[in-house]
Amino acid sequence: MSVREFFARFPNDDACLVHIMNVRFGGTTMDCPACGVEGEFHKLRDRRVYACPHCLHQIAPTANTILHDTRTPLVSWFYAMYLFATTRHGVSGKELQRQLGVTYKTAYRIGMQIRTLMGKADFDGLLSGHVQADEAYVGGRRSGGKRGRGAPGKTIVMGMQEEGGPLVTRIIPDVKKPTLRAVVNENVEKGSVVSTDELMSYGLLEGDGYVHGSVKHAAKEWSRYDYRQGVTHSTNAVEGFWRLFKASVRSTHVQISSKHMARYLDEFTFRANHRERMNAMFDLMVAAL
């Protein structure tokens, strides 16, 4: 969906409201929850409300959503969601401010609310089959401005991706065995093949019912075929996601605080999981309202 197609589809707030009705209630024709009679609900003039043609019972499509009582036009909200769906490196608050013509405070709030929507609309289940797992350190600096793994102030994140399937990311407090064990057990189905790097903390996976294999990055090993298991172990897919995420933070957002890291992770994870379905990505966000 190009920008021209977007504005042809959503030229005004009424078009956005009809789309929300279609996604949330299946359209404007329905059985009235008050009188039980089927009919085509009609929109009330100058209000974001539809009324039953028989008993005049009212339905507000934006009720109990982030759009409830918003003073920002629905077209602006929809366009912001469109930008989040079509970008690769994320959308900053300043960019939203310029694109929507609103204050920075409003733009920042819209961006954070959309990131929450993306987290709600994303994959929520167990990974299975062949899963890659890898942790990363985001942000922070060593004293004197030097960068490095494990630097103070960094946020530790962990990613797990099913081969040919969804990606799951989590913020973790450390890379100790109990922490990694809990994250894998909560997100990966028992009996799955799990590929990791040589971090000692992953040694627990065999005893937890997983088929575990690792690659030794210190020895410049990026993939390894295990003849006994019949699989190629690698963490390249997850590491590629971390590279994109870190590059996007540096170029688009400059830095992200640990307090809000989860929302930004939800944004990039959602986009990675649905990048082949751009229009569906937009509708998933609307459905998550």
UniProtKB/TrEMBL annotation:
NCBIfam families: transpos_IS1595 (NF033547). This is IS1595 family transposase. InterPro entries: IS1016-like_transposase, Tnp_ISXO2-like, Transposase_Zn_ribbon. It holds the Pfam family Zn_ribbon_IS1595. Residues 126-273 form the ISXO2-like transposase domain.
